[in-house]
Design a protein that fits this description.
Strand order of the largest sheet of chain B: 1-2
CATH architecture of chain A: Alpha-Beta Complex
Radius of gyration of chain A: 21 Å
Number of strands of chain B: 2
CATH class of one domain in chain B: Mainly Alpha
CATH superfamily of chain A: Amidase signature (AS) domain
Largest interface: A-B, 69 and 52 residues
Strand content of chain B: under 5%
Helix content of chain A: 25-40%
Structural class of chain B: mainly alpha
Number of helices of chain A: 15
Radius of gyration of chain B: 23 Å
CATH architecture of one domain in chain B: Orthogonal Bundle
Oligomer: heterodimer
Distance between the termini of chain A: 11 Å
Structural class of chain A: alpha/beta
Strand content of chain A: 5-15%
Number of strands of chain A: 11
CATH class of chain A: Alpha Beta
Shape of chain A: globular
Chain lengths: 484, 95
């Protein structure tokens, strides 16, 4: 059952081939058996999941089911789930039981989907390797010494290992696409404003966006159908109809104009990766797409701009963690200042502290213009590059990450080395565009991610092209050894 | 650009974080490396470029001034570290 896609499981439930309780129990058992080696879950909701599955079976029997009724899935532990611990991978929120649901969580509940648990992640979504979680690192199912990517490493690893058919995730600088690439699964970061951020714990508010991780583009489309919604509670949510993303999956891509940014095939990319991406592009050509070279001249500046904007917004957002209203509080504070300082010092890990400090510096008196304002200007230059490119092409394609999955501790002690992992994904967040990563090849039995970037609100096209690619190739069906 | 230990200490104070003497050297080095990366921005010609705060240049929406939320004080305070009679407790601020 665990090798079936969400689309297949949905048909199986409707046909009565198995019940949601059976299906849910199957995945819970699998998590209990396999997850100790991976650490992809922070919380497993055994009792709640089985109760929800029972309710879903009743709904299916009564004929009032939706495609998601009774389907097990998992939430990244950044989405607030009422009554279920939501830690954001941090000691700061180790004791946090949200009194409300995020809009994304609520959307899935309304469909009768069954939440298996909450997946591990880099602390406050800050990281590209899932090594910064308070709950320990996540292991990539493709190799016990390899990182799953980050920050949604738990979601990507759990989907790759067939511990859940699909999982929610979030992406601020590549946190859906990069782990999807490193774990060989399909991930989509929607346009900024497409998915509500209400109840999704904030890291960098002008960049954060929730999206799906699944095994196929079809499943990602089914997830986005639920995740995307207009929401009064998120003032940056864009009021725009949500199409049925599954209805255009089978469109032909004949005549589609695809641009390859020459900056994405630069020194950052090794020859093997380049070869794999070129092979994948040839497949798209066979499906009728026209390929041309384009340029995104400010790509190099995306990482520096991001490391001003994201830390600045993070330092503002994370100032709410003060040990007063919820979250970690230090023992025996001697005064209010001590309460604030010690609660934060004990509650946050090293990477989070680094980013808060960079942000506090960039926003401090005398430096605002040189850093934050300058970065916001460069951000517009990056957006303008994309706008010019989309005058010429319908879609941009390139690698998701510079290399396949790398080893634990391999980036050494210098945080900047880790930051450069996101060179191909960050510009999409700065521009607010939708981006997707799908399995596009293999190097030494490790998955290679192919990245697709669309124009604003072009998620349907990304999913369509990805689905057509997956009809013609079988990279997305590869299963890590031991998880078949 | 590189920053000095005193700068790192000052930033930590602004951010309400304590950095021990042993950690201070490492964090000063880390922040200097990150700021060196960020310094690449100086190379960009941004004359007459409007800073971009929102990808679609959207502005904050206003909602009608109607009551939509009910009182959830009890639920919210249940997860607080210390409360009394509906108030959040912190160490004494005024002598």
């Amino acid at each position: 059952m665990h090798n079936k896609t969400v689309a297949e499981l949905s048909k199986g439930l409707a046909a009565g081939s198995f019940s949601s309780v059976e299906l849910t129990q199957h995945f819970l058992t699998r998590i209990a058996q396999q997850d100790p080696a991976l650490n992809s879950f922070i919380t497993v909701c055994n009792d709640e999941a089985l109760a929800d599955a029972k309710a879903a079976d009743a709904k299916i029997a009564s004929g009032s089911a939706s495609p998601w009724t009774g389907i097990p899935f998992a939430h990244k532990d950044i989405f607030c789930t009422q009554g279920v611990k939501t830690s954001c991978g941090s000691k700061m929120l180790d004791n946090f039981i949200p009194p409300y649901d995020s809009t994304v969580t609520r959307n899935f509940k309304q469909q009768g989907a069954v939440c298996l648990g909450k997946t591990n992640m880099d602390e406050f979504a800050m990281g590209s390797s899932n090594e910064s979680s308070y709950y320990g690192r996540v292991v990539n199912p493709w190799g016990e010494n390899l990182v799953p990517g980050g920050s949604s490493g738990g979601s990507a690893a759990a989907v790759a290992a067939r511990l859940t058919p699909a999982a929610t995730a979030t992406d601020t600088g590549g946190s859906i696409r990069q782990p999807a690439a490193l774990c060989g699964v399909t991930g989509l970061k929607p346009t900024y404003g497409r998915v509500s951020r209400y109840g999704m714990i904030a890291f960098a508010s002008s960049l954060d966006q929730g999206g799906p991780i699944a095994r196929t583009a079809e499943d990602a489309a089914m997830m986005l159908n639920v995740m995307a919604s207009y929401d009064d509670k998120d003032s940056t949510c864009i009021e725009r109809d949500v199409p049925d993303y599954t209805s255009t999956l089978n469109n032909s891509i004949e005549g589609l104009n695809i641009g390859l940014p020459k900056e994405f095939f630069s020194d950052h990319l090794n020859a093997n990766m380049q070869q794999q991406v070129e092979n994948a592009v040839k497949e798209l050509e066979k499906l009728g797409a026209n390929i041309k070279e384009i340029t995104l001249p400010h790509t190099e500046l995306s990482v520096p701009a991001y490391y001003v904007i994201a830390p600045a917004e993070c330092s503002a957002n994370l100032s709410r963690f003060d040990g007063v209203r919820y979250g970690h509080r230090c023992a025996d504070p001697k005064d209010l200042e001590d309460l604030y300082c010690r609660s934060r010092t004990e509650g946050f890990g090293d990477e989070v502290k680094r980013r808060i400090m960079v942000g506090a510096y960039a926003l401090s008196a005398g430096y605002y213009d040189a850093y934050y304002r300058k970065a916001q200007q460069v951000r517009r230059l990056i957006k303008n590059d994309f706008t010019a490119a989309f005058n010429d092409v319908d879609l941009i394609v390139g690698p998701t990450s510079p290399t396949p999955a790398f080893g634990f501790n391999s980036k050494g002690d210098d945080p900047v080395k880790m930051y450069l992992e996101d060179i191909f994904t960050i510009s999409t967040n700065l521009a607010g565009l939708p981006g997707m990563s799908i399995p596009g090849g293999m190097i030494d039995n490790l998955p290679v991610g192919l990245q697709l970037i669309g124009n604003y609100f072009d998620e349907a096209r990304l999913l369509n092209v990805s689905h057509q690619f997956q009809q013609a190739t079988d990279w997305h069906t590869k299963t890590p050894k031991g998880f078949e | 650009m590189s920053i000095k230990r005193e700068d790192a200490e000052n930033i930590a104070r602004l951010a309400k974080l304590q950095i021990s003497d042993e950690q201070l050297e490492k964090i000063t080095g880390d922040l200097s490396n990150i700021l060196s990366l960020v310094d690449q921005l100086k190379a960009a010609n941004t004359q007459d470029i409007e800073p971009m705060a929102h990808p679609m240049d959207a502005v904050q929406r206003l909602r009608p001034d109607h009551i939509t939320e009910t009182d959830n004080r009890e639920a919210f305070q249940k997860i607080a570290p210390a409360t009394e009679e509906g108030l959040y407790l912190v160490p004494k601020v005024i002598e």
